[in-house]
Amino acid sequence: MKVLIIGANGQIGKHLVKLMQETESIHAKAMIRKEEQAAYFNNLGAETVLVDLEGEIEQIAAAANDVDAIVFTAGSGPKTGKDKTIMVDLDGAVKTIEAAKVAGVQRYIMISSFDTTRTAIQEAPESFAPYVVAKHYADEWLRATNLDHTIIHPGMLTNDEGTGQVTLANTVEVGEVAREDIALVILETLKQDSTIGKEFQVVGGTTPIAEAIQSI
């Protein structure tokens, strides 16, 4: 299986590409925005493709024309304004969903926010609300498609070393989770067809990731 990683140069994306390249059956195609970002992925033996997420759907579709699945891990980041949140977390996500349709890629995994309900939007701090809004509508767009999708809602992300263990269910108590563990969750999600059409929240915990994925 070849997987296009959108947001590959992000922290989750880098962990995910590394994990994929260590497997025999899943290989990463890293979508990057700048040529200088390629060295990390080249050193892992991963394929790269130079495409700006703020570009056209056709460019993203061309990058996806030889893959079996797409993983969206891109994010505008906490230091950008509302404009980048709209362009990346909403418009960028929707364009990749549409690009999947154009390229005939049926499997799509979305890394969303922990809670993207209308209630979460209303309760979010003013500075965070635009991000939740963007993720809410991107998730809604994906749910309305016929793609074989999975939506992953991670808790508060940390750069701690992954433990390989999580708490994972439709709804869990809010908590932290290592980015490395989210990458492992994505990898196991790709391996399990039972995750198609599902979405779940995930935080740090005590259940081995493969076992947690099998239980949903």
From TrEMBL:
A Pfam family of this chain: NAD_binding_10
Entry-linked SUPFAM superfamilies: NAD(P)-binding Rossmann-fold domains (SSF51735)
InterPro entries: NAD(P)-bd_dom, NAD(P)-bd_dom_sf
Boundaries of every NAD(P)-binding domain copy: 7-192
Domain of life, source organism: Bacteria
Name of the protein described by the UniProt record: NAD(P)H-binding
Organism for this UniProt entry: Amphibacillus marinus
